[in-house]
Specification:
There is one protein chain. The protein is mainly alpha-helical and 447 residues long. It has one domain (10-437). It is built from 15 helices and no strands. It has helices at 10-61, 65-74, 80-110, 120-126, 129-145, 149-173, 178-201, 212-246, 249-264, 266-282, 285-321, 329-355, 360-412, 416-420, 424-446. The longest helix has 53 residues, at 360-412. The two termini are 28 Å apart.
Length: 447
């Protein structure tokens, strides 16, 4: 086993986190393209409507223990064996609850409300995504707590390979529909999870310690995160169910292409947040304050610049990669872009708040933005379809960005200008970082 060593540099960890998230986005994009080409807009929409709820259920029923694992391990507040034991208990109870309570309720009450047009067998098969995704969350969160981002990236790469392989085999080679694709994806996915546990085994001993007081301690931190997560997932995912209710599976399939394009811009921010959380939790308040400022203002303007450039090639890219019938997704992406920018600010600022021990702030903000999402979805989708959904999302995300800045400033003492205006010193920081990496690389080559 490895000892809890001093973490690698922030840039190095962010690079590995970027690779990890990049593969996740690449996977969803490749699988989405295969589904679009071979299953059409309806088949692609059906896959989104059954896979997404399963992942949402896994994230909610995890009870925030993924974030709590990272926090307790990174801050040395609890032994990893106690963290692992608490996660195992939560996972078993949550999976049983989803199988015997949630999915039966879906079948009885949700088929005409949120799963209109979805075959029952497809919905039932998709429930196996819950234990698969929950296992992945636990493995990755514990590796993140150790700040072993290279190994987390390896786990995510393995899972990405299994998903793409399943899509190629089931949809292209065997010409199966959505249901058999999900079956094959689950079988290969659980093999990937076994590899993930083996990777985790190289970092810590598999000697889980069970105890109610440890579970309660984990829950006291985690439940604050799960409240935030529920509302965040409403912000991010609810619109496709409204689109399906008011329109159909095919429009959902088109809208998910716009969502896939927006996911490209979440790679960097998600990676930064993954690294920032355990790092800020282990740093003093002043160091955390400076680091968050640097990250926030730089990624804000990088998103603005690259988002604007991406708009120029968006439509022809969609037509070339997907098909002409997916071209309306370009308009939806353009309307989502302001929300992407607001989301970048929100994610970074609230990550810092959580690392300071105030995860409840993001919960309050998420409740506000989720309420706005529901209200504007109901107002705009019936009249404007998926374009109304995109506008509703942007309004909610921008509100989240404003709230993130406000609460971060209150907790840290940072100023608005330090969070959003670029500085000359930033360029020096990047030049110095590049020089260090270059010198280290050259010295390793010479040896």
């Amino acid at each position: 086993m490895e000892k809890h060593k001093r973490p690698a540099s922030f840039i190095k960890n962010t690079t590995f986190a970027g690779i990890s998230n990049g593969f996740a986005v690449l996977t969803s994009t490749v699988v989405g393209i295969i589904a679009a080409k071979f299953l059409g807009t309806e088949g692609k929409g059906q896959l989104a409507l059954v896979m997404m709820p399963a992942m949402i259920i896994a994230q909610i029923l995890c009870l925030g223990f993924d974030a709590s694992s990272s926090y307790h391990i990174a801050s040395n507040k609890m032994k990893p064996e106690k963290v692992f034991g608490s996660c195992i208990i939560t996972a078993i109870i949550s999976v049983l609850f989803s199988f015997f309570v949630i999915y039966p309720a879906f079948l009885q009450y949700g088929m005409e409300l949120i799963f209109r047009g979805i075959p029952k067998n497809l919905l039932l098969i998709s429930r196996w995504v819950v234990p698969l995704y929950m296992s992945r969350l636990i493995i990755c969160s514990m590796l993140r707590g150790y700040q072993k981002f290279s190994r987390e990236a390896l786990v995510n790469i393995v899972m990405s390979v299994t998903s793409i392989t399943a899509a190629v085999v089931a949809i292209i080679i065997l010409d199966y529909g959505p249901a058999n694709y999900v079956r094959i994806s689950m079988m290969l996915g659980f093999l990937g999870i076994l590899v993930g546990f083996f990777i985790l085994r190289t970092v810590m001993p598999f000697k889980p310690i069970f105890g109610l007081k440890y579970w309660v301690s984990m829950f006291q931190y985690g439940y604050k995160m799960v409240v935030s997560r529920i509302f965040t997932l409403i912000d991010l995912r609810l619109d496709i169910f409204f689109i399906n209710y008011y329109l159909n599976n095919s429009i959902v399939g088109i809208y998910t292409v716009a969502g896939a394009l927006s996911n490209v811009f979440w790679i960097a921010t998600t990676s930064i947040s993954m690294v920032l959380f355990p790092r800020a939790a282990s740093l003093g308040p002043e160091e955390s304050k400076k680091l968050t400022c640097l990250i926030c203002r730089n990624f804000l303007w990088l998103t603005v610049i690259f988002g604007g450039l991406f708009l120029l090639i968006c439509k022809p890219l969609i037509v070339f990669v997907y098909d002409e019938k997916f071209a309306p997704a370009a308009g939806a992406f353009a309307l989502l872009l302001p929300g992407i920018i607001g989301g970048v600010i929100s994610r970074i600022c609230f990550t810092d708040c959580s690392a300071r021990g105030y995860p409840g702030r993001s919960s309050i903000a998420a409740a506000i933005t989720a309420t706005m999402t529901i209200i504007f979805d109901l107002l705009l989708i019936p009249k404007h379809g998926m374009y109304g959904a995109a506008v509703a999302s942007s309004i909610a995300y921008c509100t989240g960005g404003v709230l993130g800045i406000y609460w971060h400033m209150k907790l840290s003492g940072n100023t608005l200008s330090s969070l959003i205006l670029p500085r000359k010193d930033d360029l020096k920081y990047y030049i110095n970082t590049y020089t260090k990496i270059k010198n280290k690389f050259c010295s390793s080559r010479s040896q």
